[in-house]
Design a protein that fits this description.
By secondary structure, the chain is an all-alpha fold. The protein folds into 2 domains: 55 residues; 160 residues, no CATH class. 67% of the residues lie in helices and 0% in strands. It is built from 14 helices and no strands. It is elongated and about 70 Å long. It comes from Trifolium medium.
Length: 282
């Protein structure tokens, strides 16, 4: 009812403020005490308490981001998210089932409710890039989602488990890159995008990133990883500065892109030693 909704909006802000200033696990204790007094609001209080772990534990934030990628790409064993897509990422929001209990909350909804509580958002850029590239490896080496693999019909050439067409892989790689760009923009806006292009991506290209999966994929992981990073960077830039020069934010675009182009030119001239696979760089 509306009276409860007004109260919960006020109480929710108060509880989140309390959680931000208190060490773990104060919030779950406070929520449990409130739940005893107001049982009909127990789901709301429990959900609010569960989000406070992201205030104090950066590993929990990383795991939540991984869950967003896993659900979106259909790599989860859960029947709710095994098909992937936006539906698996966002689910049906925050609601209760017929028995009055809280329904499972999709990772995307939980992230949208929790990212404002993350104290250090700078580390998210490196983590999102790392998770994006790991997702590319899983796409190439793991093939299609399990539900889609069952629907594949053999052709004259035959279909082997874990092997999919380049077009199918590219579609999922672009989906992963779009999700990564969305998370960067939502989490830190223009500041995080500039950090990504000026610092995170150059340092990633300089560092060495090799795995057994890449060696066994005949260069497919490296190539698709390069496409993923390119698509990811372009989308982040589009979110931050737009596609034209009409917005005020677009005035910052030449400076940031100029710095990035200087890095690219230095790498092409051999002034900077790259650690990534040449296929990724190309």
């Amino acid at each position: 009812d509306r009276s409860s909704e007004r109260f919960l909006q006020l109480a929710g802000q108060t509880l989140e403020g309390l959680a931000a200033g208190c060490p773990w696990p104060c919030m779950p204790i406070v929520a449990s005490l409130w739940t005893q007094k107001a049982k009909r609001w127990s789901d709301f209080l429990i959900f609010s308490a569960s989000r406070t772990v992201f205030l104090h534990n950066s590993d929990a934030v990383v795991q939540l981001v991984k869950s967003c990628f896993t659900a979106t790409l259909g790599m989860s064993s859960s029947p709710i998210s095994c098909n992937g897509g936006v539906g698996a990422l966002l689910g049906h929001g925050f609601k209760s089932n017929l028995s009055g209990r809280i329904c499972p909350v999709a990772p995307g909804i939980l992230y949208l409710r929790a990212y404002r509580s993350v104290r250090d958002i700078v580390f998210l850029t490196e983590e999102i890039v790392s998770i994006l590239m790991q997702s590319v490896r899983e796409i190439v080496c793991g093939g299609l989602p399990k539900q889609q693999l069952k629907k594949l019909k053999p052709t004259k050439a035959g279909i082997k488990y874990g092997q999919v067409s380049l077009a199918a892989s590219m579609t999922r790689v672009k989906l992963a890159a779009a999700l990564g760009a969305s998370l960067v923009w939502i989490s830190g806006g223009l500041t995080l995008v500039q950090l990504l292009i000026n610092e995170t991506l150059p340092s990633w290209f300089i560092s060495v990133h090799r795995s057994d999966q890449e060696e066994k994929s005949n260069g497919m992981v490296a190539m698709l990883g390069g496409y993923a990073l390119a698509y990811f960077a372009v989308l982040c830039g589009a979110f931050a500065w737009g596609l034209d020069s009409s917005s005020s934010a677009s005035k910052r675009r030449p400076k940031v892109l100029g710095t990035h182009m200087e890095f690219l030119a230095s790498a092409l001239d051999g002034k900077i030693s790259l650690g990534c696979d040449p296929a990724t760089w190309r």
